[in-house]
Specification:
The chain is mainly beta. About 5% of the residues lie in helices and about 50% in strands.
């Protein structure tokens, strides 16, 4: 039986009504690298809403407004773009519930497709899944390792964003790159002399000229790295099971790297990433440690409206310690597209098995409406 609709549910229904009656326009979030937009409009906006029901094996069920986002941007000139993004969510049992959050604001100066400059608050270029927009990911949530090891992930209210500048572009033969320098403390926090954090990423795309069994085949290989000097960084939310002291006030060297592989063959898609982080404490405060994890995901369209998804993933917050935070997780999903990503219903069952202790599962159903 579904739970009674509380204040979170009423907010979700109200948000859905607003979204359904909003005017249509086109504006998407930041991608890697953000392309030159075809439109020359000085201002345009877009919005999407995700309403989710979660039934857990242990604990109370949730009916939540998972995300309500508003994106506003445009062109100051043919080669200067601006963009802002805000978020509201409630009913998720999260410390960020119940209030509006400012996520992104940036200016993009596009001299050519080879060299572009971004200045402001945005996502550091690290990870394929992190740069897949919320309304386009094929599972409801991103993988454990993406949430834990992407730079700026551990900080409440930062939402994996940071403040800085980045140079990126698209070179010949399907090669894209990005190199950025950031504050290192995460978005929406006071400057505290943490950084700089240097992040770099490269992605190579391969397209076969001839179809394979009548279907086009496209593959991508990518690599990313990040280096930061940690000064009083709160890493406890990132690695709760690391078994290391002083993570709430980490001081030292933070190094991360990741590799990615993706392939699309007709209506079949495959995604995979591996990430690793190494934290070295200054002045011997605690033992140095490494974290790592990976995921492999496959999706297949059964019909133009129906899609099945399977994902397997692991995450180990400390490679030298075995405890209940060493996780293996399997997700099985079924997506129903009413109108592509504009309107869809996602259903999934997630089973999480720790290395130590019993596993547990949860059933999730999510409705998405996107206005673009």
């Amino acid at each position: 039986m579904l739970p009674a609709i509380g204040s979170g549910g009423r907010c979700a229904i109200a948000a859905l009504v607003v979204a359904l009656h909003s005017p249509l326009c086109r504006l998407e979030g930041q991608t890697f690298p953000p392309p030159l937009r075809d439109s020359t409009s000085r201002i345009r906006w877009s919005s999407y809403v995700q309403i989710r029901y979660t039934a857990a094996e242990s604990g109370e069920d949730l009916f939540a407004l998972r995300r309500l986002k508003l994106m506003v941007g445009g062109n100051l000139s043919p080669r200067v773009q601006w963009y802002t993004q805000g978020l509201f969510k409630t009913g998720n049992r999260s410390p960020t519930d119940g209030r509006a959050h400012f996520q992104e604001a940036w200016l993009r100066f596009a001299a050519t497709k080879y060299v572009q400059l971004v200045v402001g608050q945005f996502k550091p270029a690290f990870g394929r899944e992190r740069f897949t927009p919320d309304f386009r990911i094929l599972t409801m949530d991103r993988s454990l390792v993406t949430d834990a090891l992407t730079p700026d992930g551990p900080y409440i209210d930062s939402f994996y964003r940071d403040r800085g500048l980045q140079i990126d572009g698209e070179l010949e033969h399907g090669l894209r790159y990005a190199l950025g320098v950031f504050d290192g403390r995460g978005a929406n926090h006071a400057f505290r002399g943490v950084g700089p954090m240097v992040v770099g990423q490269g992605v190579k795309e391969f397209r076969l000229e001839q179809p394979v069994r009548g279907k086009p085949l496209t593959c991508q290989l990518g690599w990313a790295g990040a280096i930061r000097r940690g000064g009083d960084l709160p890493f406890r939310p990132c690695c709760p099971g690391a078994g290391v002291q002083n993570l709430e006030h980490f001081r030292g060297a933070d190094r991360r790297w990741g590799v990615e592989l993706s392939g699309d063959w007709g209506d079949l898609s495959v995604r995979g990433e591996y990430m690793r982080a190494r934290l070295r404490f200054a002045d011997g405060q605690s033992p140095d440690f490494s974290s790592s994890g990976w995921y492999l995901q496959a999706a297949k369209n059964l019909h133009w409206r129906w899609q099945v998804v399977a994902k397997y993933e692991t995450f180990d917050p400390n490679l030298q310690v075995m405890n209940r935070w060493d996780l293996q997780q399997t997700t099985l999903g079924l997506n129903f597209y009413l109108k592509q990503d504009t309107a869809k219903i996602m259903t999934s069952y997630v089973f999480q098995q720790p290395q130590v202790g019993p596993g547990h599962g949860l059933l999730q159903i999510q409705l998405q409406i996107f206005i673009h």
